[in-house]
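Q&A FORM
Asked by: J.P.
Topic: structure of Helix-turn-helix domain-containing protein

PROVIDED:
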Amino acid sequence: MNGPGEGTRAPGGRPRTAGGPLITGALAATEAGVVPATIRKWVQLGHLSPAGRLGRSLLYRLEDVFAAERAARRPAARS
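REPLIED BY: S.T.
REPLY: Here is the structure written out as tokens.
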């Protein structure tokens, strides 16, 4: 049985899922204009979840990366 990120591939050879192609953390960082450590921090803080794996690499949906970027840049709610 194939898991997320396995099976069909997008034209660039990247895995494809129902939510679109999956990209590596390095590419996700480039697209969001941040360093790869920021992507890892967003995962750690719960702003972003990996959508699959390719070997040891975590893969993300670009739309999820942009949502995490918006969540991370949103000012914290005051109590």
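FOLLOW-UP: The first helix runs from residue 25 to 32.
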